[in-house]
Amino acid sequence: MEKPNISVGQEDQKPDFFSGNSSRNLAERIEAAVDHLSKPLEPEVSTLEKKANLILLDIISRHPPTWQEKTTNLSQTVALAVAIVEQLNIRRLLGDASTIQNLPLLIDLGAGKALLSRLIYELVGRKIDIIAVDVRNAAKNYDPKTK
Question: For residue range 39-76, what is the model confidence (pLDDT) as tens digits?
Fold first, then answer.
């Protein structure tokens, strides 16, 4: 049985860097493959995210040292706060005086030091009510003593 002759357009063909041509050494093939990779995109940082970063750093600087000051924790706190503010569309509500009575009440259960709650509160100009609850009995040496 004869194979069908199917031609593929030039734009559909992808270079095969890791088969055939055994005369090329591995390093050359890897370099050739890397050259064909698209450049990584720079993450777009929104104005709200920039503002959240600055506010959170200010909040952290005013309080005793905490383990939540780690870069990964700060990034997560900022991302959560921005997502909550955007999801609830709080900024739109704040801009409309007629809906000011319809602002959401934010309840943060298991708040710990309430960094997330405080960040959201500050991001929306202290114009929403927040209840932050935590009932744990943390050890006195839970957080670091110095920064």
Answer: 776 667 788 899 999 999 999 988 877 777 888 889 99
pTM of the predicted model, to two decimals? 0.59
Q: Are 115 and 38 in contact (CB under 8 A)?
A: no
Indicate the helix (H) or strand (E) that contains 106.
Answer: strand 105-109
Sign of CA pseudo-dihedral 85, 86, 91, 94: negative
Radius of gyration of the chain measured on its C-alpha atoms: 26
Closest CA to 56 of 73, 44, 41: 73
CA dihedral sign, ordered 129, 113, 133, 110: positive
**66 CB neighbour count, 10 Å cutoff:** 16
DSSP state of 97: G
